Structure formats: structure tokens, C-alpha cells
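Quality-control log, excerpt.
Job 1 of 2 completed; input and output follow.
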Amino acid sequence: MTATHTGQADATKQGWAGGLTAFAGVMLILVGLLDIFRGIMAIAEDDVFLTTRNYVFEFDLTGWGWVHLALGAVAVVVSIGLFQTATWARVTGVAIAALVIIANFLSLPYYPVWSVVMIALSGFIIWALCVVRRDESFDPFEHVPHDM
């Protein structure tokens, strides 16, 4: 391989790494905001949620609201760290997305369709954060023209 060809391959890898990190950041901020809104709805005891009898993981709807509100707020903060390409944000992003999956699975009977959507989005976040190798860290705003 020539040096030029190797440089192009590295640039392509960097592009993919940056794209996936930016994708994960945008998706995590979206999941966080939606979880915040879901938490507020549950705390306000909105009629949007189903009431289920005899559910193994039955908690008070207000309790679920606080769980989703806290996870959403942490997800938004971590997504800001992802845009700054911080390693702590990648690790914490995977952990928060996993906790969002668990929380949505446990609250599945209260809001079934939305829980499945949030589980799928969180799965994509985990995939995007885990597929980028450590040596491929990338600044997603590096190639943005500064004269915008």
C-alpha cells in the first residue's frame, strides 16, 4: 500500500468513527429528552399510561416517572460529552443506554409501544458507541467550515 492509499483509508475510518459518534450523540440526546418528557408525564400521573394488574415489577407510576426523568437528564448530559469526544462519555453512554433499556423493559406494560421504540433506539446507541475503536476517536466538528 502506498502512503496516499493508507492516508485515504485512515481518513475513511476517521469519517465513519466521527459519523457513528455523532449519531450516538444525537440519538442519546433524543432518547434523553423523550425520557425526560415521559418522566414528567408519569409524575403528573397523566392518563396516557395503562394501569396493569398483577405485574411482577409493579411500581408506583410516580416512581417510574422519577426513574425516567433521572435517566433522561443524565443521558442529555452524557450526550453533550459525546460531542466533545470524551472517553468517559462513550463508556457512560453505553451504561446509560443499557439502563434505559432495562427501565423501559420493566415499565413495558405502562406504555408498551413507546417502550419498544426506546429499547430499539437505545440498542442503536450502544451499537454506535461500541463499534468505534479507541484509536479512532474523532472530533465530529473537525470538518465543519468555520465561516457558517
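Job 2 of 2 completed; input and output follow.
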Amino acid sequence: AALKHKTGSYMLVVNTHLVYGNTTSAVKQREYEAGRLPYFLRNTLRKLNATHGHVTDWTKAPVVVLGDFNTHKSRSGDDSQQILENMGWHDSYDQARRLSGQHRNTANPDFSTTPVIGGVWGDHVDKVLVKPRRTVVYGWANVGKMKNGKYVAPLGSDHHPLVVRLGLA
């Protein structure tokens, strides 16, 4: 989505969903998809510049990538996250000045009302990726609605809402 801020500046927000699975072939595919993501983004910005360059210089517009990356910090043998970091894309969780609900995983494949507690903070598959040199992350929050330590049912998805507040340059 191309978004226009009230100041008149534009940004690009891209939703992605990397392949799911723990098999060797699924991990290889996910690593491949992670490695291709920056090229896809550059091509998309170039195309936007060619078709809508009169609006802004899209090649210089800030970009935020979010979605289900199906990998996390504790997943051994899966370099998807490291591949993205090596290309300059970092999890906003690691950049956030404030965290909320960080111990509860945003994924909930069993639609359980009991929170899945991660052994490592930031051990979540849902991410908002940013370029730290262009972004200040003010807050990261897992905002799945809770009451008495349980998620409120019925659950609308097998993932809980993630809210990230950021400033882009």
C-alpha cells in the first residue's frame, strides 16, 4: 500500500507471508523468499516511480515490510531472519523503545485462549521490518485482547494483532 501522510510525504507498506514449515525444503524456500524480498521492494519502487513519479520519488520513499515470516530467533537451522538483517531489514521488536506483551507469541496456531509464552523475548513470527537508519521505533505491542490472563474468545485469527508505532525519515 502506498500511504500519504498528512504532511504530504509518501511511504510504501508491504505485507508478506513467507512459506510455512520446518522441513529442509520449506526452510530453503523461506530463506530464498527472504533473500528475494529486497529485490522485489526495489523493483516495486522503480515501477511506482515510472508510473507515479509525478507524486513523489518512490525510490527514496520509506518502506515498511510486515507480515508472517514463519521464523523466529530460536529457530535453529533457519537463516531467513539473518538474511534479511544482512540486507539491512531489522525486526522493529529489536529496535523498540517500549515493549508490551513481548513474552506472548503473536502466533497462535491452535486458537488457544491460553497465551503461548516464548522462551526468548521476541520469539515471534509476525514482524514489522524497518531500516534502522531511517526509522525510530517508539513501541511494539502484542495487543491480543485479554481478560484474566486469557485471550478473549472467539479469536478472529491464528495470529494476534501487532501494533508498532514508528517514525520514518
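Post-run check on job 2. The first strand starts at residue 2 and ends at 4.
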